[in-house]
Amino acid sequence: MTLLSLAAATPATPKTAPAADPLAELRYWWDSSVVWVNGHWLQIAIAVGAGLIIYFLLSLVRGFALKRAQSAPGHFTMTDIVGRVIHKTKSLVLAIVAIRLVAGYASPPAVVMETIRFVFTVAVVLQVAIWAREIVLGLIQRRAAEGHNETLANAMGIIRILISVALFAVAAIVILDNMGVNVTGLVAGLGIGGIAIGLAAQGIFSDLFASLSIIFDRPFRVGETIKYDNSVATVERIGLKSTHLRSINGELLVISNTNLLSKEITNYANLHRRRIQYAIGVVYQTTPEMLRALPALLQAQVEAEGHEFIRSSFVGFGASSLDFELVADVHNDDYNQVIAARTAIGIRVFDEMTRAGYDFAYPTQTTFTAAPDGTMILPYAESVTMKTPKPAQS
């Protein structure tokens, strides 16, 4: 083989790229690409064909999954969220994935391979950020739809902005890190800036996150009656900064969400039964037989009204009475019905105890009058032992 034929068979290798002249550098990369195409045209053709097939298959899978997700019944379901995520998958990203999968087979120049890797990294990172945003927003909207929460629906605009800024900021940092940029200073700067903004607007963010806590944790909902601190009120509106409560006396209470959650809250909405208690005192002249029969009498009155008897027992010896307690449960969500049941039970207990001869005790005092020598003075009963004065000694 002659030197001429050897030179014709082997692709020409371009000279080293000049570092100073941009036009010469561009010419060098162009010559390198021409040499690569002339020497690997078959591998390039096979890679292009394989890439087109991969792109077609990925598009087919995306279309099939999207069709199945959109045909599922229900709105803001998990299937609907998956469909939204698939819908946000860009065709350009599928094409870049296909190119990245077949690029190694064609043995491209280093600069081309590095370019493909960089574009692939940028596309995948941005696509993952889009997927994450759709998943988070979908779950939040699903939560709002389940609870018919008007506040969360109104707050979706600012929530969308906050989530988008956070996710794409992380994506930008990941991209810069893959480009070889030292992101340590950038992350530290963003952290310091975030702390400064948080300190400046801590009151607003505190109430905002408290509002989100109320929305997601649901300690109470609109229309429910709660006890906040020493106030009993009905929830009228849950806002991003404050909650409006209507007290039982009619006043409108506007309380910041942070202060509202810092107090103990009693929710009466899910109270399917309410316990009522009575303190009953009878006179000390009541016979032991009547005292033993009293718990059964009280139980009979509760059951006669159709409510659940819990207990009735002797409590103790009071200053003016023998004390008993009666405890019963009323299975009703309506507080007005509970009050009516309490009234009916109380009147029935009073009626039956009166018929049975029980006397209700009330605070009394007895005054005894005596002469200077200690002798009891009438009108008290003469049967009372009187002290006889001692005779004077001579």
What's a concise summary of this model?
By secondary structure, the chain is an alpha+beta fold.
Q: What are the segments in which pLDDT stays under 50 over at least 5 consecutive residues?
A: 1-17, 383-394
* Terminus-to-terminus distance: 172 Å
Radius of gyration, in angstroms, nearest whole number? 43 Å
Number of helices: 13
> What is the helical fraction, as a range of percent?
55-70%
Mean of pLDDT: 78
Measured by DSSP, the beta-strand proportion falls in 5-15%
Which secondary-structure class do the elements indicate? alpha+beta
Strand order of the largest sheet: 4-3-2-1-5
Main β-sheet: number of strands, strand sense, barrel status?
5 strands, antiparallel
Element-by-element helix/strand order: HHHHHHHHHHEEEEHEEHEEH
**Large-scale geometry:** elongated
DSSP strand count: 8
Tags for this entry?
single chain; 394 residues; alpha+beta; 5-stranded antiparallel beta sheet; 3-stranded antiparallel beta sheet; 13 helices; 8 strands; disordered N terminus; disordered C terminus
Please provide a written account of the structure.
The protein is built from 13 helices and 8 strands. The strands form 2 sheets. It has a 5-stranded antiparallel sheet with strand order 4-3-2-1-5. Residues 1-17 and 383-394 have low confidence and may be disordered. Helices cover 56% and strands 14% of the residues. The protein starts with a helix and ends in a 39-residue tail after the last helix. The chain has helices spanning 3-9, 22-39, 41-71, 78-87, 91-103, 110-147, 150-154, 156-178, 184-200, 202-217, 257-261, 288-304, 335-355, and strands spanning 225-228, 231-238, 242-247, 252-256, 265-267, 274-282, 308-317, 322-330. β2 (231-238) and β3 form a beta hairpin.
